């Protein structure tokens, strides 16, 4: 029997999601050894290693982690502003890379990453759009493809997050929060985007900075005329709430909420609402990393969301920010055809 290969992983950025992935890769995903970590804040990574009872090299410079021969795969969970440089360095070193969303801050940086990856001759990178692995979204996608509700006509969505810090501005609401719907929607309905507009309704009292707009409404029209409405509210006070309804010619698909035990007590019937995005999509994160590691451990290209998916999301997000800054003016979108490079052996293809 062949010996099982243990994939040696280095994680750059040990913050909120980085520490969560550190735990996932050491406690949940099989045949992984996190051999190195790195964080720009001195002592932060080591503190998390100690907390989780783990041992790994603690680098202060991500270049040293990437160039460590004992690191085969780089996981980038650093601040968004650092994604581009870290990913480019990892690809230059010829190492498989997992980058949390967004791939980069704008479309130009994403195209640079695409060009770097294509020079390597095969896919080396996966973007952390974990909803592609969420069982409920996968089921919804299959039902749409099977024509269960006829042709999709509209989508009605919300992405509500509990209180974000004051520095979480209008731009971050798009590139960190709405980016999930921007990525998943065209995949769900098998259609490209034609235009987008973003505007602000009445603002919540929990925004003190008048330059921050929250909530926001994102409206997208696809090439075939499907209308998509997404309410983005990052200072929602009651919990973490995700909704996705796809309205078709014959019926409606409704994304289920996470099952909760109902309580009948004191003349009330109630169920809990989640407050943590990690709990909402925990299974999706687990499935995502198992799939990624399963492929790269065998020296195979990853098949999840690609650099091209990151580019499509970035182009759309750039237009969304422009619309928001122009009082909701509609921004037209036009994308080139998906390169064959990103169509081959890919489970998630942009349209």
Automatic annotation (TrEMBL):
Enzyme Commission number(s) of this protein: 1.1.1.18, 1.1.1.369
InterPro entries per record: Gfo-Idh-MocA_inositol_DH (IPR050424), Gfo/Idh/MocA-like_OxRdtase_C (IPR004104), Gfo/Idh/MocA-like_OxRdtase_N (IPR000683), MI/DCI_dehydrogenase (IPR023794), NAD(P)-bd_dom_sf (IPR036291)
Function as written in the Swiss-Prot or TrEMBL entry: Involved in the oxidation of myo-inositol (MI) and D-chiro-inositol (DCI) to 2-keto-myo-inositol (2KMI or 2-inosose) and 1-keto-D-chiro-inositol (1KDCI), respectively.
Keywords recorded for this protein, A-Z: NAD, Oxidoreductase
Enzyme class, spelled out: oxidoreductase
Reactions the enzyme catalyzes: 1D-chiro-inositol + NAD(+) = scyllo-inosine + NADH + H(+); myo-inositol + NAD(+) = scyllo-inosose + NADH + H(+)
SUPFAM superfamilies: Glyceraldehyde-3-phosphate dehydrogenase-like, C-terminal domain, NAD(P)-binding Rossmann-fold domains
Domain Gfo/Idh/MocA-like oxidoreductase C-terminal positions: 141-327
Biological pathway: Polyol metabolism; myo-inositol degradation into acetyl-CoA; acetyl-CoA from myo-inositol: step 1/7
Name of this protein: Inositol 2-dehydrogenase/D-chiro-inositol 3-dehydrogenase
Gene name of the record: iolG
Family: Belongs to the Gfo/Idh/MocA family.
GO molecular function, one term: inositol 2-dehydrogenase (NAD+) activity
One GO BP: inositol catabolic process
HAMAP family attached to this UniProt entry: IolG
